[in-house]
Amino acid sequence: MSFEETDSEESINSRSEVSSLDDDFDSIHLESESSDEEVTDDEVDSNVWNEIKPESDDEFVEDHGLVEEVTSTSGNNTIDPIDCYRHFVTDEIIDLMVRETNRYAEQYLQTHEISRRSKFRQWKPTTNEEMLKFFGIIIEMGLVQMPKLKYYWSSSQLYGLEIIRTAMSRERFELLLKFWHL
Asked: Pfam families, from UniProt (predicted)?
C-alpha cells in the first residue's frame, strides 16, 4: 500500500468520525429544540442538586466544635480585641515561647563562634512582658506594612511608628526575631 493510499484512507476515516460527531450533535440539538421550554444552565444545576437526598432530615440539636466564652478583662464587661487575643495566646503559651527562645539563644551562642563585634553578644534573656511587646509589634507590622523593617523605627513623618519605637529598639527586635523559638 502506498503512502498516498494510506493518507487518503486516514483522511476518509477522520471525515467519517467528524461526520458522526456532527450527526450526534444535530440529534442533541434537535432534541433540545423539540421541547417547548428553554432550559437554562441554572435550571439544570438546580435539578441535579434537587435529586440529591440528605442522609437525615434531623436538625442540629447541639453545638459542635469549640464553644468557649471569651472573658472580658475590662471593668465594663465589653470584650475588646485584646481579650480575644489573650483567649488564644495564654500566659502558658507566652511562658513556653520565652523559655524556648531563651534556650535556643543560649544554645546558639554556645555552639557558634561569635565575633567580638557581633550583635549576638548583646543578647539578654527575654521576659513575658517583652515577648508580649514583640508580638504586638509583629501584629502592628501586619496592619501597617512598610517596604523595609528599619522604616518602622524611623523618626520621619512618612515612615515610622512611635508606638513601635517606644515599645522596643530595633536591635532588640531583630535579636528576638533571630532567636524566637517555640
From this structure: DDE_Tnp_1_7 (PF13843)
Tell me the chain's radius of gyration from C-alpha atoms. 34
Structural domain boundaries in the chain: 3-51, 81-179
Taking a C-beta distance cutoff of 8 angstroms, is the pair 138, 161 a contact?
A: no
Q: What are phi and psi of 180, to 5 degrees?
A: -60, 130
Write the single-letter amino acid at 71: T
Other C-beta atoms lying within 10 Å of the C-beta of residue 179: 20
Tell me: the pLDDT tens digits for 108-143? 999 999 999 999 999 999 999 999 999 999 999 999
Backbone angles phi, psi at 166, to 5 degrees: -80, -20
Using CA atoms, how far apart are residues 94 and 91, in angstroms rounded to an integer? 5
How far is it, in rounded angstroms, from Cα 116 to Cα 45? 71
Q: What share of the chain is helix, strand, coil (3-state, %, to 5)?
A: 60, 0, 40
What is the phi-psi region of residue 45: left when phi exceeds 0, alpha when psi lies from -120 to 50, beta otherwise?
alpha
The verdict on pTM exceeding 0.70 is: no
The three three-digit cell numbers of residue 112, written as one number: 557558634
